[in-house]
Structures are given as C-alpha cells and as structure tokens.
Amino acid sequence: MQQWNGWGDATVSVDLSVKAHTLLRELLGQGNVRADYPLEKYIDRIPASRLPHHPLISTHPKKRLDHSHGQSLSDWIGLRGGILQRFPDGVALPVTLEDVTEILDFSKKHNIVIIPFGGGTSVVGHLQVPEENRPVLSLSLKGLNRLIELNPANLLATFESGVLGLELERQLMAKGFTLGHYPQSFEFSSLGGWVVTRSSGQQSSHYGSIEQLFAGGELITPGGLLRIPPFPGSAAGPDLRHLVLGSEGRMGVLTRVLVRISKIPEKDDVYGIFFPSWDHGRDAVRALAEMGIPYSMIRLSNSAETMTNLTLVGQEKQVALLKRYLRLRGIPDTKACMCLIGFTGTRRLVKTARRESFSILHQHKGVYVGKAMGEAWKKNRFRAPYLRNTLWDNGYAVDTVETAVTWDKVTPTLKAIENVIEGSLAPWNEKIHVFSHLSHIYSTGSSIYSTFIFRLADTPEETLERWKTIKKAVSQTIVKAGGTISHQHGVGVDHKPYLEAEKGSIGIGILKQLFAHTDPEKRMNPSKLLS
Ligand SMILES: Cc1cc2nc3c(=O)[nH]c(=O)nc-3n(C[C@H](O)[C@H](O)[C@H](O)COP(=O)(O)OP(=O)(O)OC[C@H]3O[C@@H](n4cnc5c(N)ncnc54)[C@H](O)[C@@H]3O)c2cc1C
C-alpha cells in the first residue's frame, strides 16, 4: 500500500545510522520534529463535491485527498503540515480507452476542469488543484495499464498510458525485452507521465531519454483525437511527438503510447571510480562523452555529495576500509569525488567500452574500487527516495533542483547553485546542507542535480516560506547562469515563472496557440506550464 503522506510503499523504511544523525546535527543542528497532520482531520475537512453523478467518478474524500498533490516538497509541507487547501471534486477511474472518451464528453457537457493523473510523482506542482469556479476532476490513468501489442520485428510495444514503470518492465521482460527507462521514481511513475513531462531515466545514455523512446501514440484532446504513427524517421514537417512531449496534460489525455524497446542486454554492469578532485572527475567524464564511448550511465558526485552519501547510506565498516584504501592511493576523503559508470549491451561491446573508458578515467587519475559499489547502487537505486520520509520524521526537509548547461558553464553553475542555496536561509539564521552530481552527460554539456537539506520550521507556513525563498533564489540563479529551468522534472507551477526566459515571447505565443487549438475552453490542467 502506498504511504498517504510520504514516499512509496508504506511497509518500506530506511533507517539513519548513528553517524548519519551526528553528521546532520553537526551540519544543521538538531532536527525539528513536527507531528503530522492526521488523516482523519483531512477527511473531515474535504468540502462537498460540485460534480454531477457519474458511475466512473468517485467522490470519496480519501480518493480526493490522494489526488490533490504530487511529491514536491511544497506538496509535502502542505500535506504533512495540514495546510493543503484545494482538492479535486472527484476522481475519474476509467478502465478502458472508451471510458476516457466518455469522461471527456461528460466534462465538456458540464464544463469540468480535468487534471490527468499518472503515478502522482510530479515534483514541480503539476497536480496542484487550481483555484477554479468550475468543478475540478482528477482523471486517474491507473486502470489503463495493459500491454496492448508487442511487435518484436519492429522493436515496438504499445501500452496503455497509465502503466507504472515496474509493471511495464515486468510485462516486457517476460517476453525478453526492456524499455530501459529508469527514473528514480520508476516504481510509482507512469509511462504517460514520463512522456508528457519529458522524463529522463538513469541509463538514458544507452536507451535514450523518453523523447527517444516515445515512438507515437494517441492523445484524446477536447478538440478531437491526435494520432501519431511510429515512423522510424520522417521529414514530413515538424514532429508532432515533440508537441506531446512536455505538454504536461495541457493538450489532452495521452491514452496509448508506442515505445521503442530493446532486447534484454547480455551485460548491465556498474562500476565505482574515485577521483582526487572535482576537476579531475569532470574532465574525465567530459572526455568520455567527447570520444563517444558507449557508457550507459555516469553519475559524478562532488566531494560534498560523496561524503554525504557514504555517511547516510554506506555501511560503516566498508566506508572506513574504502577511505583507507583511497588515502593509500593519494585521495584524501575530504576531496574524493565518487563516480559510478555503467555499461550495457552485448558482452563484447561492454568489454571494449569498459576497457576504453577505464584507460581514459585512469589518465585523469581515477581509482577503480571494484564492482561491489556499482552492484550495491543497482540493488538499492530505488530505495534512496525513502530517505525523504526518514529525514522528515527526524525534523529535516529535503529537496532537489536540476538544470543542464554547456560544458563551459558546468562548474560555475554548480558552484553558483550551491552558494545561493547555502545562503538562502541566512535571514532565519538557519543552515542548509547542499551537494550535487552530474548525471546525464552529453558531448556538449551535462545536467546538474543538487540536493539540499534543511531543518523544518516550527510551523508548516514558515517551512513553506523558507522553501519558497530557496526555490526562487536558485531558479533565478539557474536562469542567470544560462541553464534550462528543468532538465528532467518539467515545469508545472514551480518553474512556470522562468519558462519565458528560455522560450522567448514567440515561443510562449506558439505554445499558447497550440493549447488554445486543442483545448479552447482551457479545461485541461489549466495554469500548469503556462498561464
Ligand atoms: C523520488 C522521486 C524521484 C524522481 N526521479 C526522477 C528521475 O530520475 N527522472 C525524472 O525524469 N523524473 C523524476 N522524478 C519526477 C517524476 O517522477 C516525473 O516527472 C514523472 O515523469 C512523472 O510521472 P507520473 O506518472 O508520476 O506523472 P504525474 O505526477 O501523475 O503527472 C505529471 C504531469 O503529467 C500529466 N499526465 C500524467 N499522465 C498523463 C497522461 N496519460 N496524459 C496526459 N497528461 C498526463 C499530469 O496532468 C501532470 O501534469 C522523480 C520524482 C520523485 C518523487
């Protein structure tokens, strides 16, 4: 069962070691543990629904609460602090594609606003219920989770859009195939959500991001059906797939999705390397990208992230051994930068790619520490988000920001992001612990992903105010540095004020016209992405 006011499966928990508690106390002070707002109080507070009756729509208060938010930190503060104010009037639960059409017709007839709901893992406010005079309906796609067709000759699979990552891979793997799209939210996010938020998976360097994997499909818009055939390539004008990618529910409901699949690879290995400094690591991973080495993933942590991860999730004895080994190899633990590198494919290809890569990493003073670290990462890669629950329960909030910039800007932007975050709570005399990594590495540049932890305030209103202060300062810094406001999380409401800086007024105008064409009454997820 999913946790109603936190991340993931309610039966899974990740503990913090004594060392981790000590580290947090030293960095930030004793956590400010706050009691959670009880579920029963929410249930009592949910107002009467404004929707007319429909057999496919539930107006049950718990269902409405569960569909009133995503997983952003501001969603959490609202939910756990009891200050969430708006809830959808009902939740539509279609189980066939015809049901979706039926719901859209019903919504048109009664002037109802629709928020498509995939896995509910948005971290930028995509699912917030807007202030509306019209009734608001959350349209859950969870009942649409079937594999419709698998075509091995064309390496294409057609799914209903609500299928969650785990179930999608289970269905493909049973037939010897994989999509290979692994965002960290993989277990709980949906195929449709991935497409319309332009999501990136951890092994995107091998399989491609969702924009490469999304081959076509069907989108039901209030204005009619948009069908996109899965051409292997086409020069017939602008590619309509790219209008759907990143549309964030504004154009319509994506119902069927065709994806490009691969055979299950013979090898899928991850290795751990340590560098004596950030510059060594950055130059090494840039060199790999420049040379076109076929790695499947790279994650280069700065020294702050390396230290934090080893303390928060590492086994104490093994970490001590590792540090001793690194010191022997001339890498002091205060400067060490951890790099995970993965190779995926046939045995021969993986062998060649690994040999070539290791030779380059070695030239940049990389020290290989064996396979165990990579194996441990693979095994636990979807457990890290559970730390959000543990940290909150111990009085700390955690959030992330991400962008992508060209190589000349990578280090200055990363430093500017960390500096501005670190100083953001100075007016409150509070500290923030921030650390970063590069994960999606391109020949032209890289994504930057920063995580920050700070103490909860005494009231949820105050915690929200602090979060808003950090978010605004860091978003402005990203724009000023010339980065995109999002490499993978999308725009939602949190990044909306910064979109025009990168699209320009003509770009914003084109998008407005597009949404006005497919949804003239502005009933599809209004106020997200664009005003
Ligand atoms: C712990 C954690 C880790 C994460 N890691 C990653 C990561 O590694 N990479 C990454 O890219 N993102 C990551 N995310 C962000 C999030 O998982 C992605 O944005 C994901 O693509 C959202 O998918 P979803 O199914 O949960 O969509 P939802 O959150 O349900 O919806 C997101 C948006 O898509 C719209 N939508 C959903 N389904 C449809 C549909 N069928 N038709 C039309 N509109 C639809 C919604 O209306 C909304 O606007 C992470 C989030 C969390 C909480």
Task: Describe the 3D structure.
This protein is an alpha+beta fold. It has 4 domains: 38-140, Uridine Diphospho-n-acetylenolpyruvylglucosamine Reductase, domain 2 (2-Layer Sandwich); 147-263, Uridine Diphospho-n-acetylenolpyruvylglucosamine Reductase, domain 3 (2-Layer Sandwich), CATH 3.30.465; 267-380, Alpha-Beta Plaits, CATH 3.30.70.3450; 386-494, GMP Synthetase, Chain A, domain 3 (2-Layer Sandwich). Helices cover 38% and strands 20% of the residues. The protein has helices at 18-28, 39-45, 61-66, 73-81, 97-109, 165-173, 191-197, 204-207, 210-213, 241-244, 278-290, 303-313, 316-328, 347-363, 372-380, 386-393, 407-423, 460-481, 499-518; strands at residues 57-58, 90-92, 113-117, 136-140, 147-151, 156-160, 177-178, 214-221, 224-228, 253-260, 262-263, 267-275, 297-301, 337-345, 367-368, 396-406, 432-438, 445-455. The strands form 4 sheets. The chain has a 7-stranded antiparallel β-sheet, with helices on both faces. A 5-stranded antiparallel β-sheet has the order 5-6-10-8-9. The relative contact order is 0.14. The model has no long low-confidence stretch (mean pLDDT 97). Residues 7, 70-71, 115-123, 126-127, 141, 161, 183-185, 189-190, 192-194, 196-197, 199-200, 248-249, 253-254, 385, 488-490, 525, 528 line the site of flavin-adenine dinucleotide.
Characteristics of this structure?
single chain, 531 residues, alpha+beta, Uridine Diphospho-n-acetylenolpyruvylglucosamine Reductase, domain 2, Uridine Diphospho-n-acetylenolpyruvylglucosamine Reductase, domain 3, Alpha-Beta Plaits, 4 domains, seven-stranded antiparallel β-sheet, 18 strands, 38% helix, globular, binds flavin-adenine dinucleotide
